[in-house]
Amino acid sequence: MDMKEIKRMVKLMVDNDLTEMNIVDGDQKIALKRGPGQQGGIVMEPAVIAAPAQVAQAAAPAAAPEPESNLIDVISPMVGTFYTAPSPDSGPFVAVGDTINDETVVCIIEAMKVMNEIKAECSGKIAEICVTGAQPVEFGQVLFRLTPA
Predict the structure, then answer these.
(1) What are the structural domain ranges in the chain?
(2) pTM beyond 0.85
């Protein structure tokens, strides 16, 4: 299975509010799960079993440093490319020190040629921006850390 097909399956999960999906395609199997209790995020735990000639390993998301206990994480709800601004010649949506609310657009994640505006879904002050522009992001990866309002 290629990444486009996996992204399509995850979009189906999100669109239909599914928490778990198991797919078998010949010798390949994949299990997708969305983690409960997360702020708009999805946790993907792939288990890929390929034919003996092809051994595929699932890539683990980048390990994030331990957050301070009082900070709120804004996590990626999808796999895609992270953008800090609406266009290359525009300023960033947010910067460290900005006060935001739950409706503030904090970034764009491009997935399958679609630009998805990501809202903070919580209020606070930007304490840390954990991803640089045009960098690929994974499900559940921390994008921003906020000091609660």
Answers:
(1) 72-148
(2) no
The C-alpha angle 141, 147, 148, rounded to 5 degrees, equals 105
Report, as an integer, the average pLDDT of 6-17.
Answer: 78
Radius of gyration of the chain (CA): 17
Residue type, 92: P
| Spatial distance between the Cα atoms of 75 and 10, rounded to a whole number of angstroms | 16
Task: Tell me if residue 32 falls in helix, strand or coil.
Answer: strand
Phi-psi region of 52 (alpha: psi -120 to 50; beta: other; left: phi over 0): alpha
Say which CATH topology domain 72-148 has.
OB fold (Dihydrolipoamide Acetyltransferase, E2P) (2.40.50)
**Residue 84 tokens, joined:** 């800090």
146 contacts 71 by C-beta, under 8 angstroms: yes
pLDDT at position 36 is 55
Chain CA centroid to CA 83, Å: 12
Instruction: Write out pLDDT tens, residues 104-135.
Output: 999 999 999 999 999 999 999 999 999 999 99
Of 90, 93, 85, 97, the closest CA to residue 124 belongs to: 97
